[in-house]
Amino acid sequence: VALRGLFIIDKDGTIQHATINNLAFGRSVDETLRTLQAIQYVQSHPDEVCPAGWQPGDKTMNPDPVKSKVYFASV
């Protein structure tokens, strides 16, 4: 049985995101778009990461555990 799958592959051919769902439930187009936008953002801003639930225009984080405290102090 074929399951529902989604793979986001970047311009270099690297899989950046993969999900496989049971037949009983579908995928979210809104979440797929958000994930794609986050991937594109961090690829063009390599010193930043997008936190969970990030939307374009939202604050990003520094990937360093100590420097990320700046982000967490502001949310």
Describe the protein's architecture and organization.
The protein is α+β, with helices and mostly antiparallel strands and 75 residues long. The chain is built from 2 helices and 2 strands, in the order E-E-H-H. It has helices at residues 29-44, 69-74, and strands at residues 4-9, 15-21. A hairpin with a 5-residue loop joins strand 1 (4-9) and strand 2. The chain is elongated and about 45 Å long. It starts with a strand and ends with a helix. The mean pLDDT is 92.
Can I get a quick summary?
The chain is 29% helix and 17% strand.
* Average pLDDT for all residues: 92
Strand residues, percent: 15-25%
General shape: elongated
The end-to-end span amounts to 44 Å
Count of extended strands: 2
In spatial order, strands of the major sheet run: 1-2
From N to C, what is the helix and strand string? EEHH
- Residue stretches low in confidence (pLDDT < 50, at least 5 long) are none
**Alpha-beta content class:** alpha+beta
Helix content: 25-40%
Q: How large is the radius of gyration?
A: 15 Å
Tally of contiguous helical segments: 2
Q: How would a crystallographer describe the biggest sheet?
A: 2 strands, antiparallel
